[in-house]
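Mods, move this if it's the wrong board.
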Amino acid sequence: MSSVFQDDVIAFADDYVMGLMSPTEAELFEALIAADPALAAHVARLREQLLPLDLSAEALALPPGFAARLQDIIARTPQDAAPTTPLSADPTVAPVAANLPRAPMRWLAGLAASLVLGLVLGFGGAMQRPAPAPQVVAVLLDDQGQPRAIIEDYGDDTAQIRFVSDVDVPQGFSIQAWTLPSREMGPQSLGVLDGPRATTLASPDLPVPADAQLYEITLEPEGGSPTGRPTGPIIAKGLAAAQNI
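Not the wrong board. Structure tokens:
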């Protein structure tokens, strides 16, 4: 599968998860999800990434008359209009809606047909190979209940951490990630982080992660805890949720 085709599918996944598709477009995209396990796994990861935003966002009332104005705009906007201007290689020609790669529903229908054809012919390539899926996911909250980070543990001695809000790390200190497989084993380090940024963690000889397993990040002296156990203040912590895979 070409990289252009794959990029288009990924772009549509973003729109699908954020609810930006029309009902017909969503139905077509759900057909793609049902036909491709890797795409289904990607959509699931996008939903997990948006979870902290859902948890932290405050509900706001829509302004008066919003629904009526939106319905009027939808009624006056062609949903799948034919191009009003021939496609042109001239960069001075302004693109119309039908020229924009993510605008019309026919683009999505074409992608669906192409993917189904690729699956039938066995040319799905990377999109047919299921991406690794985490065995557990933990949303780490601070003492105010605000999401700070997400940890995905794959059960193969690796995990990934992504931060969803800023974390202040004073000079001379480091962030360290931990998990508590059991009280008998005690806290185990997942690794020292190079600042509050997305990181792949590697920690050999850890047991298979389990549902409700504790994960946390602490502030430690630069380079990590000198004792092999958490010594600094807890920045955020949370219990893992099994992904039923």
